[in-house]
Amino acid sequence: MSSNGSVTKTRNFYIDEPPINTDIETFFTKYASIPVPELREHLLTIRNRAYQNHNYPCLGRWGFLDFSIQQNPIYKEVVEKCKTEGATVIDFGCCLGQDVRQLIYDGVSPNQIRGYDLDPFFIDQGYELFRDGELMKEKKIFSTGDIFDDQFLKTIEPADYVHVGSFIHLFDAETQKDVCKRLTHLSKHAIIGRQAGLLVAGEHPRPTDGKKMMKHSPESFTRMWDEVTNDKWYVEGVTLTKTTIGTIDNEKLIFVVRKRDEK
Predict the structure, then answer these.
(1) What pathway does this protein act in (predicted)?
(2) Which of 98, 124, 133, 201 is geometrically suited to a Cys-Cys bond with 220, CB 3.0 to 4.6 A?
(3) Rounded Cα–Cα distance for residues 261 and 263 (Å)
(4) What angle do the packed helices 98-105 and 120-130 form, to 10 degrees?
């Protein structure tokens, strides 16, 4: 590919201006005490710094401002169980930790939430983005860890719910099966999240490095979970949806995977 072609491809995953709306303004004003006139510059500073280190589409497209966990069909259940029954949540592959903050914003105690990411850089940038580093560190909410590190996984106490946003799709088809098996060991009841999807499933080059990533259809996603868990877990719901950030359309699977006999 020519250098011009490379630039064009990169730009397809990059939007200059943050998609600030009333909801985003309200969230950052209330949670992070950032005045609206300062918000644009604050978001640009953090995003540009993060994108310079990792040119992920979710950073270039401002996907971390989408707060995907609240779009899940059982999000209200998760919040209610946390508030009334002391349920716990793990956000695995949490990136900047936006979904952890959404839970806290909606009234879940920080003591019931844990976030894990491979790269400590993202955790640190999350502290800067949400201006809550002191609280997060005091509560020891965030930690680094590798989903493929067996010894690390043994140290994690399973949570009632595990959230995985923009994570499973990073891997090829066979590796995804291994990832899903590992996630079931971290969850007592349900695994929820979203990932890149397509109407016709298939492996595609990953935009950051060209390695293969599997984009599932609802049908192939369901088959994968049936296979890797021997029907001990089942896909309760999976929807292919299209969202638009700026002028770019994204096809996403929003899913709920439930342990058998769980309601």
Answers:
(1) Secondary metabolite biosynthesis
(2) 201
(3) 7
(4) 40
Q: Which of 106, 164, 117 is nearest to 141 (CA)?
A: 117
Q: What is the DSSP string of 20-76?
A: --HHHHHHHHHHS---HHHHHHHHHHHHHHHHHH---HHHHTTGGGS-GGGGSTTHH
Structure tokens at 213: 């990533």
SS3 sequence of 83-102: HHHCCCEEEECCCCCHHHHH
DSSP three-state, residue 17: coil
pTM listed for this prediction: 0.92
Pairing of strands 159-165, 187-196: parallel
Q: For the chain of 263 residues, list the mean pLDDT of each consecutive stretch of 10.
A: 36 84 97 98 97 89 92 97 98 97 98 97 97 96 97 97 94 97 98 94 87 95 96 96 68 95 61
Exposed / middle / buried, residue 249 (Cβ in 10 Å: 0-12, 13-18, 19+): exposed
Measured distance CA(221)–CA(156) in Å, rounded: 26
What is the C-alpha to C-alpha distance for residues 202 and 215, in angstroms, rounded to an integer? 6
Assigned token pair, 159: 């949570």
The CATH code belonging to domain 65-259 is 3.40.50.150
Distance between CA atoms of residues 229 and 158, nearest Å: 17
